[in-house]
Amino acid sequence: MLNIVLFGPPGAGKGTQSERLIEKYKLIHLSTGDILRGEIAAGTELGMKAKSLMDKGILVPDEVVIGMIDSKINANAGSKGFIFDGFPRTIAQADALDKLLSGKNSSITMMLALEVEKDELVRRILHRGKDSGRSDDTNLDIINKRIDEYNNKTAPLKEYYSQQNKLNVIKGVGGIEVIFGKLCEAIEKQV
Ligand code: ADP
């Protein structure tokens, strides 16, 4: 299997690049943000609980997202691999993911980490907020909180995957196709 953690701060371009990567490598895209927004749209209890945190820019509890990912992996058994987008976001989530995959005789192949500086992230998110319909994309305080959550809880995962020799850092600024080319190059080197 080809299991990729597509990593980066909010607004780094994970969603955009995921679309291209799943098509090229025939992978399943698992975005915890998208799954959570689906729960909100469906009006589930989980969705309602998650919404109050997401609207503040705070991470939802690890158990919630780990459970969601577990069931999505099971629902797609037999696939060629997964792109994890927006997951894992904490060390606890990364540990849980390693355990889930090893229980299926699989593992994370690599982390692709998109790097974009803060001013550009804020600019992109505010731009996206004009038509994304996402309430967390329009308010500067919430955007800053999301970036803080990333720096405090999520960025340490680079070290986690670096220790497993799986970290690939890619500059996330420039043309979408240029960045996509760099991601593909990193994948082809690793596999
Ligand atoms: P972005 O990365 O652009 O902020 P996402 O759609 O990935 O957007 O996430 C939106 C929100 O959903 C996050 O701010 C957080 O509240 C919640 N969320 C998504 N994935 C996770 C996760 N793996 N762990 C905890 N919270 C999550």
Any overview of this molecule?
By secondary structure, the protein is an alpha/beta fold. It contains 9 helices and 5 strands. It has helices spanning 14-25, 32-42, 45-54, 62-75, 91-102, 118-132, 140-154, 157-163, 176-190, and strands at residues 2-7, 28-31, 81-85, 110-115, 167-171. The chain is globular, with a radius of gyration of 16 Å. Helices cover 58% and strands 14% of the residues. A 5-stranded parallel beta sheet has the order 2-3-1-4-5, with helices on both faces. The protein starts with a strand and ends with a helix. The model has no long low-confidence stretch (mean pLDDT 97). The structure holds adenosine-5'-diphosphate. Adenosine-5'-diphosphate binds at residues 10-11, 32-33, 36, 53-54, 57-60, 65, 86-87, 89, 93, 146. Adenosine-5'-diphosphate binds next to α2 and α3.
